[in-house]
Design a protein that fits this description.
The protein is of the alpha/beta class. It is 33% helix and 20% strand.
Length: 230
């Protein structure tokens, strides 16, 4: 999916639901997440982003939306994503796929996101990380973390997490997890398959946190205006 199409879709959902969706990308998808953040951060009016309707899978004939918080019309550009993450996204395939414009941006996160977490596998030949991966950093005020996953994590298999949700022990551990380290350790006493549990727990923590923050913000706005939301 082109990043500007994804950005336009975020505008459509924000106008409809009052909450900007969170972005989670793996490998090439992580690059698209970061590129979308740069599209949103570019507030120049020369190249506006059309609102993209996901129901029709078509761009609408407009580049502005009705902001459900301010009540005013605003462009898609300038929207701020509450939470985004890139998982096992490296520079090697940016070179191989000719995505050279992203090489200098891949670890630099703009202000179009409030909180960003980048997950790196310490030894990931597909991503081009060989024990010394460059950490993510903010270009401004975004809160940015880099989490190093163990070397035995698989670039291809890292999205597989359904078994963690199905098992009561791993599900309980994930629900109780709080990020306290940028090099978390896999729990050893669960007597269950804990493959991919570290980033799954960290992402789930952030999803819960930012969904609640955004929902509370929207409820306060609706109460102030005397609308529904309590």
């Amino acid at each position: 999916m082109p990043s500007e199409q994804l950005a336009g879709m975020l505008g459509w959902y924000y106008e409809r639901d009052g909450m900007v969706p969170m972005l989670i990308g793996h490998s090439q998808g992580g690059m698209i997440v970061i590129k979308t953040l740069y599209d949103l951060a570019d507030v120049s009016p020369e190249h506006p982003i059309p609102v993209w309707n996901p129901l029709t899978d078509q761009a609408e004939a407009r580049t502005t939306l009705q902001d459900p918080v301010s009540g005013r019309r605003r462009p898609v550009r300038g929207l701020r994503v509450p939470y985004a993450t890139a998982i096992a996204t490296g520079k090697l395939f940016r070179v191989l796929l000719g995505q050279w414009d992203m090489l200098g941006k891949l670890r630099a996160i703009p202000d179009s996101v409030e909180e960003f977490t980048g997950f790196l596998i310490e030894w990931d030949p597909l991503a081009g990380t060989f024990g010394n991966a460059e950490p993510y950093h903010a270009t401004g005020s975004a809160r940015v973390r880099t989490v190093a996953l163990p070397a035995d994590y698989s670039h291809i298999g890292i999205p597989v997490t359904l078994h963690l949700a199905r098992n009561r022990a791993t599900r309980r551990w994930i629900n109780a997890y709080q990020p306290t380290s940028d090099r978390p350790a896999t729990p050893g006493n669960l007597h269950a398959d804990t493959t991919n549990i570290l980033h799954a727990a960290d992402i789930w923590y952030s999803i819960k946190k930012h969904w609640c923050i955004e929902a509370q913000r929207l409820i306060r706005v609706r109460r102030t205006r005397g609308g529904k939301g309590s």
